[in-house]
């Protein structure tokens, strides 16, 4: 496969999560008066786990049913998560950076995508020193819906002037990542086992491949090491 573009998720796929999302969710939901001892908390946390990869403001809207409360929770999520990143609780998935460099050296463009706000994505890129690692970094925002809509992939295709969706590969650790890839028409929508979902959940979502890590993606795409 002559791959023109690889669209890669960040937390859980190229960046190790290590529970940062759940910690930040717990801090965020407290703004709505829900503590870990609250009867509502387990169901809310389960929803967060099931919707990993999706835009965080969308998740808070679904949980709280009130725009003002959702915005407060989203702001606190960002503050807490970015604080953890600034404190050094951020590391790449082993082999991820090398895989991205190998893909780009072979002529494949790389876009890093996320369900976080653009400011949070930038905090991750800054902490990792990845500002110039990929060709493009994209987050949900005006005119670009988050996963599982196909917008992030299609926006990357347009901005990077890709000629054929059949030459696009998508990789992520959640069913939402898989659905985004499939809905965009990408030839490869691969799941990775370094994040939120297991093999069965990724295959149930329709993953074309399941990899132990994004580090294996260049080999899957036939990129020589």
From TrEMBL:
Transmembrane segments: none annotated. InterPro entries: HAD-like_hydrolase_sf, HAD-like_sf, HAD_sf, PGP-like_dom2, PhnX-like. Pfam families: Hydrolase. It comes from the Bacteria. One of its GO terms (molecular function) is phosphoglycolate phosphatase activity. Keywords: Hydrolase. Coiled coil: none annotated. GO terms for cellular component: cytosol. One of its GO terms (biological process) is DNA repair. PANTHER family: PHOSPHOGLYCOLATE PHOSPHATASE (PTHR43434), PHOSPHONOACETALDEHYDE HYDROLASE (PTHR43434:SF19). This is Phosphonatase-like hydrolase. It comes from Amycolatopsis rhizosphaerae.
């Amino acid at each position: 496969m002559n791959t023109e573009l690889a669209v890669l998720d960040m937390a859980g796929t190229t960046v190790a999560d290590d529970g940062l999302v759940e910690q930040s969710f717990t801090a965020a939901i407290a703004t709505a008066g829900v503590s870990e001892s609250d009867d509502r908390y387990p169901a809310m946390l389960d929803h967060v786990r099931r919707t990993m990869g999706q835009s965080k403001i969308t998740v808070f809207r679904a949980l709280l049913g009130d725009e003002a409360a959702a915005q407060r929770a989203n702001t606190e999520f960002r503050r807490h998560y970015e604080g953890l990143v600034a404190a050094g609780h951020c590391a790449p998935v082993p082999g991820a950076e090398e895989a991205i460099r190998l893909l780009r050296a072979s002529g494949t463009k790389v876009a890093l995508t996320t369900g976080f706000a653009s400011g949070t994505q930038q905090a991750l890129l800054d902490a990792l020193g990845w500002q110039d690692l990929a060709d493009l970094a994209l987050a949900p925002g005006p005119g670009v819906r988050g996963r599982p809509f196909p917008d992030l992939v299609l926006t990357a295709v347009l901005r990077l002037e890709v000629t054929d969706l059949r030459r696009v590969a998508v990789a992520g650790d959640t069913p939402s990542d898989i659905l985004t890839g499939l809905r965009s028409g990408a030839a490869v929508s691969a799941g990775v086992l370094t994040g939120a979902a297991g093999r069965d959940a990724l295959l149930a979502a329709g993953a074309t491949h399941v990899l132990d890590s994004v580090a294996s993606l260049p080999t899957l795409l036939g990129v020589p090491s």
